[in-house]
Recover the amino acids of this structure.
């Protein structure tokens, strides 16, 4: 019983540490290092490439503690971090059939849950989230305004999911459901 209690305390501490590890005092967002190995894989989307040829594979990760809280409360807790890698896709005939799998990383998106409205003056923060975009190998976000242009128009592209806390959870049901 004592052990369970302290494990829970550690889990909560991990989500709190989002704001010391990945976000500075001004609200600048840094990409976590080990999410592909150590976090929970939420799911993937296969999306037609913007040049119309082939597919991209979007792989999405979140902290295990945030999944636990979502299963309990049905919403993403303060400090939850969603990371989405956009990868090219390789294909190859295998014994299962024509197989597709992730290859080169193109770029990475990240959303940081902020239930407290911490950065009212920083335009990369809005509607309960911090919004960030990273080029491969660069941990500093490219996003100055979540209503920017191109890939930085987070707002425009996430608007259809507004009533779902801006997140496209339909691809992650197998992990998020109770
Ligand atoms: C071209 C439209 C588009 C743009 C621009 C865009 N998103 Fe998304 N995003 C989506 C869609 C649609 C999904 C879910 C399906 C998919 O991956 O295609 C998604 C998924 C995500 C996910 C995984 C969680 C989820 O909602 O499913 C994160 C994190 C994310 N986006 C962050 C961002 C951030 C941050 C920005 C701005 C810097 C941004 N996105 C810009 C369309 C977009």
């Amino acid at each position: 019983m004592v052990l369970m209690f302290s494990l829970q305390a550690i889990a909560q501490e991990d989500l709190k540490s989002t704001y010391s590890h990945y976000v500075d005092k001004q609200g600048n967002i840094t990409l976590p290092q080990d999410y592909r190995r150590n976090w929970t894989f939420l799911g993937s989307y296969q999306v037609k490439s913007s040049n119309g040829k082939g597919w991209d594979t979007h792989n999405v990760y979140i902290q295990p503690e945030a999944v636990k809280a979502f299963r309990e409360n049905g919403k993403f807790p303060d400090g939850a971090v969603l990371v989405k890698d956009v990868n090219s896709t390789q294909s190859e005939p295998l014994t299962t059939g024509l197989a597709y799998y992730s290859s080169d990383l193109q770029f990475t998106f990240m959303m940081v849950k902020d239930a407290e409205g911490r950065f009212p003056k920083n335009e990369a923060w809005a509607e309960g989230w911090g919004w960030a975009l990273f080029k491969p190998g660069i941990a500093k976000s490219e996003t100055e305004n979540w209503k920017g242009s191109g890939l930085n128009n987070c707002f425009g592209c996430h608007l259809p999911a507004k009533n779902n806390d801006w997140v496209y959870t339909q691809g992650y049901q197998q992990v998020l459901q109770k």
Remarks:
- Residues 45, 47, 58, 60, 82, 84, 109-111, 131-133, 143, 151-154, 157-158, 167-168 surround heme C (CB under 6 Å).
